[in-house]
Fold:
Amino acid sequence: TELDHLKNSIEVFRLLIGAGMLKEAASHYFGELANSLMYSVGAYGDVVELLEELLHAAGEEPWKALGARPASYVMGGLGIALSHTGEVEKARALEAQTIALDLAEKDWVNLSIEIRNLSMGRGLATGICGLELSLELAKKAGNASGEAIAHLSLAHAEASCGRYDDAKRLLEKFRSYPTPGRTVYQRGDAEVLAASIALEEGTLTEAQLADGEAISRTANNLGGQKEFHILRARWEIERENLDAALASADAAVEIVRRTGERAGLPFSLRALALARLGRAEEAREALGQASNTYYSAEACFELGYIEAAKTVAIKAFVAAWDDGPPYAYAADL
Structure:
């Protein structure tokens, strides 16, 4: 789904706001429009614009105009979009408001979701504690989809810490539940995690990558497609297939540029592939948009920037250390 195909639906949303039908506007947004904008198109900037319009119309206490749960959905959705566009402080302020609202309403289902969202943007130690609380709340509320997605999120966190057996166990637990709806789970995300673990364990295959890519494409999961491009680029770099690695890095970069997401890893991978291919000028340009990763450090080294490589490597190590073992990004240490 391209953004042009959503123009009519966006126009209806704005007409409802203009008519003062704010509850109806929120209900309209949180149907297929929200899923398409966030997950199929990745139009994070447009999501921010639309939801800020709705909250502005709803006033300083939007729950009074929208109702508690719709207001929580709107603030939570806006917070996620702001995180994607790099506006972290604004996102955290909204997260705090949303959690306070859910607590006041004793809305354990929504609170579980918001705590999970909050936990995903924190350090590993704090994040895992938050995800365990999210799981407990989902169980308390009898919310099976919340339980499922909490298990998947915990699997991601355990994999980040290098505890791959625990991660695989949690992934299988996720798969034992009915597949959650698209508002909380995008088909292909579990396959991304499984492939990430396989890459770290040295067992990733072309078949596993191709299967996961196909699932993400069929589900219009743009974020999943980006992650598979990144995984394939990393895999091809390990195998020294530099042209293939560059093609996959470029595909990930194209998605990042299209969505406006703040993501430097695809540029790091592009820079390293270009540097090893002897395309120094293009590699330097890619480094200007890259994040401080070991791929960036290696690209600097390939280009002969030894001191820059040391500086970037140290920054990458500090980021990977996170809260310190056992709450560190094990693969990057």
